[in-house]
Amino acid sequence: MTEKLYLTDSYMKEVDAKVSKTDGNSMILDKTIFYPAGGGQPNDTGKILIGPQEYKVVDIKKEDNDVIHVLDRPAQTTVGSMAHCIIDWDRRYACMKYHTALHLIDGIMEKFYNSGMITGGQIYPDRAHMDMDMPGLTREKVSEILEKTNAVAKEGHEVLIKEIGADEAAEIPRLSRTETGRKLLQTLKTVRVVDIVGVDLQADGGTHVRNTGEIGTIELNAYENKGSRRKRIDIILK
Ligand SMILES: [Zn+2]
Fold it and tell me: Taking ligand 1, which is a single-atom ion, which protein residues have CB atoms under 5 Å away?
């Protein structure tokens, strides 16, 4: 099992880890800071240095409890060797800002606009979108929501990552706002939650900034009506 350091400290940019398995271009380490794609957030990229060799990390996958680092070529190393891992921080930090921004928008919609379920979403390093099941949503309303979200972001709310028990999680009605998330919650003993203090609380496995003041200004890139259950809000950060 790989220790997933990104779950507890999303600001780690480098770490030394031990090689636990290699197979062709794939490598498993005892611990990692590389985020595998999930929950709409893309995988990290970066590099791994082993002795004099430098490998590019081109993809990150999760298999059961292991995180697989896909390298640009087969590693010339043995189990137990030390590997120095460096993530592409600019890409990761941009994704963190977009991820927290989406949670904040959703929190504002939940609090003030009686929003429905989230029916889709994807984060990129330079933009992000979220699809909402909210038949009455309009472009004007979205502009108003984003204005409110930006005002709240600038108040500088702390963003905390916590683990709570399944019983406590079951008491929080809107802890997950996706169908798949709700099904997953029923199988977990402990639930990782992202708490944007005073604004939003959601079950989540992604990486986030520590404070909403880091997000910047959210701008509407596009608004698309993709059906009554899919109103797409596409944002960019400035
Ligand atoms: Zn999320």
Answer: 204, 206
